[in-house]
Structures are given as C-alpha cells and as structure tokens.
C-alpha cells in the first residue's frame, strides 16, 4: 500500500483521481477486499540461498551433493536447486542411453570417467540414506568396443596408450581376434578395435538421478519447481594491470518464476551454478554473457546449444548374444543389447548438414531407414532382419566449439559457475564434474582432477580441447 | 536414555541390508524398526548416530578386504592370496597339498608360508566377506583352477567383471546363492573360455533364471552350467494345468 505524498505541482483534476485511488485501497484493506498480506508461500523458493543451481538434472544434483559433502561444517551452505520440469520429460539425463566408458583421448576425460565409475561402483556408500533401500543401478559391465578403419588405426593406438597410462583397462584387438571373440561381426573395413575390459558398460540413469535426489534432499538441499527468468547483478568497473577497463559483474538476485503463473520470487544468492544442460546458452544470455562487441571477452557467448539425437529400440531374433558389448562402428553408428529378449538400442550422430531441428522431440523414423540401418546391417549381418519396436529423441547439450564440457567460473560474471556442455558424455562424467565444481566453489581451484583446460576462457582465447575421434 | 541407546546398539552392527525398509522384519523386530525409523525421522541426533553406525559397518568390510602388500612383497602372491582367504574364513588348496582351512575360532597354522613357489589350485571362499577390493588378492593367483564364491554377500556384478584376469586357468566357478549377482554380471563371464563347470543356482537377483541359463550356455559352449533349471520359468500348458 503506497502513501500519496502531497506535491505542490499537482493539477486540480489529478487530485480527484488520487482521491478515488485512496478510496479503492482503503476498501481493499477492509474485510472482503482483495488485499491479502498473509498468503501461502510454501510453493515459492526461499528468499535467500547461498548457492542457486539452475537445472536439476544429474549434473546439477551432483554439484549439490558434492557441495554439501565437502562443506567444512554441517549445514554451512544453503543450496537451492531450481528446475522448471519436475517430470524430467525433456531432460537429457533420463533420455540418455546410459553408457559409461574410459575410451577417450584427453587424459582429463579419462580421469573424470574413472572417478565416476568408482562412484557408481560404491554408490551405496556415497548415497546411503538411513532407512531407504540400497540403489540398484542395473550396471552391465560389458565394455565398449570401438572399431577403427585404416585411417583411424594410428589414432586409436595412441588413444589406447594414453588410456592405459591413466589406468583404464583397455585392450587392442585385430580383425581375426574380433572374429574369434564375436563371430557375429563382419570385420570388413575394420583395421583395429579397442575393447574395454573393466569399468565400462551401461547403467540406468533414472536410478542414479533418483538416488542423488533422495540423498541430496536428506542433506538439506531445497528444491524448487520454477523457471529462472532474470538475474539482477551489480557491476564494478576495474582496471587490469595493463590499464584496460574491465566490467566485472556479480549476480546477487535470481528471479524464479512459478509454473503457469506470473508469480515470481527473487532469491538472493551468492553463487549461481549453470547446469541447465541443453538450455545453458539461454541462461548464460540472461546473465549478460555474450552481450558485447564480438571478438572481445564480453562478446564471447557460451557456445552450448541443444541438438536432437534419436535412439531406436529394435528386436532381432538372431542377433548377437549375451556377451555383446556397446559397439561403436567406424561410421559412427552405435548399438548395445537391452535386456534378455534379443532387443537392441542404438543410433547414430547425424552430420552437420543433417542436424534435425531441436524445436521438439519428435522422432524421424526415416533417419533410421536411411542412415542407421544400412551401417548396422553391414557391420552385423544378423541385423538385416530386424523390427523397430520404439524410438525416442533427446537433447545433447552440444558445445559447438569443441564438444567438451565447460567447467568453472566465468571470467567477467564472477559468481556464475558452469557445469554443462558435455555434448553426450555428461552423464558418465557427472559425479566427477560435480566434485570438481564443488572444489572450485569452496576452495577456488581444482584439487583432485585438473580441469583447467575446460574453463570458459578457452572460448575467447580460441584454444580448442578436442577429442581425437576415430573415424 | 540408556534403554534407547542399548536398543540402537542391538540393531546397529547388523548387515547393511538390515537397515533398509524393504527387508520384512517379523514381530517385535518390526516394532523396533518402526521405532528407529520414527526417531531417525524426527531427531537429527538419532539420524547422525545411525549414519555413524552404518559407516562403521562399511569400514569393517573394507578392513577385512585390505591387501597384504607386506606379505605379498616378502613371500609372493600365492602366499598372500592364501593368507587372505584363510583370514576371511575360507579354505585354500595348494597344488599337490591337502585343503587348508581355519578352525572355528579363525586360527590357522602358518606352515603354508614355506610353499612360496607352489601355485594355489583351488579356493573355497564360501560365505566370506570378499568384495571388489579383496578380489585383488585372488586375481594374483594366475594358476587358479577352481573358485567357489558361494553365498558371498558382497560379491556383485562389478566383481564378476574382474574375473577375466583368471581366464587363462579357471575351470570351475561357483556363484550359488550370491545375493547381489545378476544376469548382467554373468554376461561378463564370456572371457573365461577355459571354464568347464559353472554353478549359477539360487541367484535371487537374476530376473529370469531359465532364460539366463540358456543364454549363458550359448555364450560358453564348452561349459557345463548347473542350477537354474530352464523349465523353471515356463508356464504350464493347458493340459498340464489341473
């Protein structure tokens, strides 16, 4: 309720309008009126929170878990996780195929994956909640089988050397060994294959998500079902050592809008973590990242955008048996066994020109007919007769710069930390990335795994950290 | 307060699974369990205490599965593996010797320390608390021919994925009664091409025992698979149903 101040410049006719305003206000305060100061706010997030995590998928929850686990005193940090969809209908986590491998070419990726697999193996010690049943991740430890053609054989050998140095258990196989071990493979065009013997396979991402959610709630993290619409920040102009002027921003309020209503709650916060997956780019724009002349640090956007990927489930009665690993073909097509009934899951990443429109999650079945099936049938002759049972689509939080994750603070918006952009391998690195971001927030630097090559500044400096993929 | 503390201590050092709500307790145990759950839901102290007791149980299992690097360096992998198994309460057979086991009180004679160059042929670790870490000691026994992991509560699919290191020698494997082994772990046994006998009876975590047995037989053609009768999962036909 506002008071009207007397102003000598008021025109006489204005005064009449003001009087009727005052009358309306008094009427609304009286019983039966519209003014209701004491209303239910239990659906709104709290007004203050030390850390606000935008995005409640596996990466956001992992950061929340490690923040609460690594805090120095019990209850020292108040964490709020904001997600606009509590059904996770479009979240990349639950639509993922669930594979985990150590067969990368960058040592940082291998280390992240090794720690994550350790976490998954001991998940019932990490995520134990008193009186709740232990988690069953349904992990299939069958390994990944990557096939390489003549061109990619040298790169594959190099990669396997790096993987072995980091401690991954991978072995190289020649085409004859492949035929002996997996008689259903057609080794035409394959020069070399690398097979993960331990710590690789696939698991149920929904179970991991629920386990993290349950544990994180028991540790005192607040959840809010809402959408982040605005960041209020304050800026500071500073001078660098060389005399240039830099504008540093600090976000001190996050506006969280409730679902299907205009109501919003300003949440005062100290740190914001951007774990919004495919929509991280939009969140970064809200914070003012990328608003500046191109080529400068202020003008460098977060290059993460949603890309749609299809996954198909088919049945093949004569297909490969129980020992089938997660096979990745030379053409980029992949498949794995699902369950005991001769069902298989698989797909293929489209080329840049064929990228589908990420506006919705509709499946294109012609893509399977034209692009996936021919390669599958060529590699596994038994797949010539198969029947597609179902299919779905999910988003990759695709990093258009170098397809690897972005971790750590932004150089100008000093209290926004990123944990996104993993372009399809976010789920398998989530526990380790969560720990790295928590260390960065609490200590100021990475302690266990050095993820300095994955900081935001590489987009401005142009230093790509790319995976050397095998063709 | 002492009565409360004593009731918590009574239920504390039990198996990890005993802490879960899914294990159906009977009678007075159920009342005790409900009381503990109520207290843990309403009092932070009780919750912290129960978490502490749980952590202690977990640490106990880890302590049992520590690796004996000192013995390994001094006497070799065979002695270290044998010592580990005997300490856990299992039995060990060296090549050309008789079975050795600790007596009821966990004591065993140390004269096998002279068999440094004699490989271990068979290990019977039934009912022992071996887990993923402890398996390190067994995987160093490169001439192991027979391994029995019956009723081991901590042997799960992850442990089975490590057994490929014994592929060169293992001929007999028994996993009967292991509560955490499922068909996903059994699928990794395809590395063990020398396996001749595999016992997969009574595995509660396997969803479809009959089908699993057929698939395992297809996967390991030279191996005799015991347990998990394939007719188990079949429904009776109309003429057989009475």
Automatic annotation (TrEMBL), chain A:
<feature type="domain" description="FAD dependent oxidoreductase">
    <location>
        <begin position="50"/>
        <end position="440"/>
    </location>
</feature>
<keyword id="KW-0999">Mitochondrion inner membrane</keyword>
<dbReference type="InterPro" id="IPR006076">
    <property type="entry name" value="FAD-dep_OxRdtase"/>
</dbReference>
<keyword id="KW-0249">Electron transport</keyword>
<keyword id="KW-0285">Flavoprotein</keyword>
<keyword id="KW-0560">Oxidoreductase</keyword>
<dbReference type="GO" id="GO:0016491">
    <property type="term" value="F:oxidoreductase activity"/>
</dbReference>
<keyword id="KW-0496">Mitochondrion</keyword>
<protein>
    <recommendedName>
        <fullName>FAD-dependent oxidoreductase domain-containing protein 1</fullName>
    </recommendedName>
</protein>
<dbReference type="InterPro" id="IPR036188">
    <property type="entry name" value="FAD/NAD-bd_sf"/>
</dbReference>
<keyword id="KW-0274">FAD</keyword>
<dbReference type="GO" id="GO:0005743">
    <property type="term" value="C:mitochondrial inner membrane"/>
</dbReference>
<dbReference type="Pfam" id="PF01266">
    <property type="entry name" value="DAO"/>
</dbReference>
<comment type="subunit">
    <text>Associates with components of the mitochondrial respiratory chain complex I.</text>
</comment>
<dbReference type="GO" id="GO:0032981">
    <property type="term" value="P:mitochondrial respiratory chain complex I assembly"/>
</dbReference>
<comment type="function">
    <text>Required for the assembly of the mitochondrial membrane respiratory chain NADH dehydrogenase (Complex I). Involved in mid-late stages of complex I assembly.</text>
</comment>
<keyword id="KW-0472">Membrane</keyword>
<keyword id="KW-0679">Respiratory chain</keyword>
<keyword id="KW-0813">Transport</keyword>
<keyword id="KW-0812">Transmembrane</keyword>
<keyword id="KW-1133">Transmembrane helix</keyword>
UniProtKB/TrEMBL annotation, chain B:
<protein>
    <recommendedName>
        <fullName>Distal membrane-arm assembly complex protein 2</fullName>
    </recommendedName>
</protein>
<dbReference type="InterPro" id="IPR032675">
    <property type="entry name" value="LRR_dom_sf"/>
</dbReference>
<comment type="subunit">
    <text>Interacts with incompletely assembled mitochondrial NADH:ubiquinone oxidoreductase complex (complex I).</text>
</comment>
<comment type="similarity">
    <text>Belongs to the ATP synthase subunit s family.</text>
</comment>
<comment type="function">
    <text>Required for the assembly of the mitochondrial NADH:ubiquinone oxidoreductase complex (complex I). Involved in the assembly of the distal region of complex I.</text>
</comment>
